[in-house]
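JOB MANIFEST
job_type = single_chain_structure
chain_count = 1
residues = 414
[input]
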Amino acid sequence: MSYAADLHLHSSYARATSPSLDLPLMARWASIKGIDLIASADFTHPAWLDRLERGLVPTGGDIYELAPRLQPDADAWPPPKFILGTEVSCIYPQGGRSHRVHLLVFAPNFDVVHKLCVAFAAHGSLTADGRPMLKLSSHDVLATALSIDDRCEVIPAHAWTPWYSVYGSKGGFDSLEDCFGDLVGEIHAVETGLSSDPSMNWRVPELDGVSLVSFSDAHSAQRMGREFTVFAGEPTYDSFRQALVDGAIDHTVEFFPEEGKYHYDGHRKCGVCQHPAVTLERGDRCPVCGRTLTVGVLNRIESLSRRPDTVQQSESGLFVDPTGRRPPFRRLVPLDEVIAHALGRGPSTKGVRAVYDQLMANVGTESHVLQHATLDAIVAIAEESVALGVIAAREGRVTIEPGYDGVYGTVRSA
């Protein structure tokens, strides 16, 4: 048995998120996407926590589901289960410089959540943002969580993003041990983030001992499931934790990392986007204005890696570690982007939305359409150009413009 999980999400109480993000909408879109387990998001925010306690009911195994009054009358697919998880932002000095690290924090039940909120509230405002800024080190957030309940789990979020991550070029560290000190053994996983994929992380020996997970970091419901992790086992809290410890991950589903908005180095204001090799040769100053470039994810991985990239693609489309030590992964392009490119329209237009809805109603979840639906099944509902675009993206036949300095890249079916 396995289940698809997206465990990095946000509610309407987090900064720069859709105001419509509530529990029923999150559950509905998780079903559309084909996700079985999602994070509650933002449990540190008092108003959202109140909604969570009124809107979720336990189902056993420290997993929750929507209360009956919030369940849709009819749905094409089963609604997801929920796990209690949030994200916090740590901003603190260490080793003579300022560090900024985002962490995912998971708790087994609401009693533990309330204790975490009391502890965190002493170090930052929990009402200002669903992703609170805490004047705590990453080590101390982990120590606090474990002291409250040793079943709490802490995962470094989007581990390579320049501004707020454990390895980020602007505010991170060069190793997990530098960040978490004597508690580094309690870090069982890192989130690779949209701008990197597992094969990039395989090059860093330090990460051999931790699981690599991928989640969407969605700020709107439609972006849920753009990355997710398929865990082995049944969806319970302890099964999830043990899977991280044991590396019991079936596979992950990824963005093309070039589509992430921090893949290459660059300077958005001047439109400068460059490969790390160019930065190494010419320095980290913008060739237009002279300001410091934002050093991207690929550059940071190159600087900390000790191995070449040896990833291989199997006949099934999965990317595999030739040593067999790591779970495989798949790269996909979001379905609305595939449809938009095929029809020559914007992803948010009514025409694209109509085709998307028809595919969901007649073919299957977005995950199924992107990974498994046949050409004939898609052509029966949408134009042939859409079907060919799905198959091309599935097979990796794409054209790419890498993202940089906060600008998303573009990946289009060839």
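[summary]
The mean pLDDT is 96.
Residues 334-401 form one domain.
exit_status = 0
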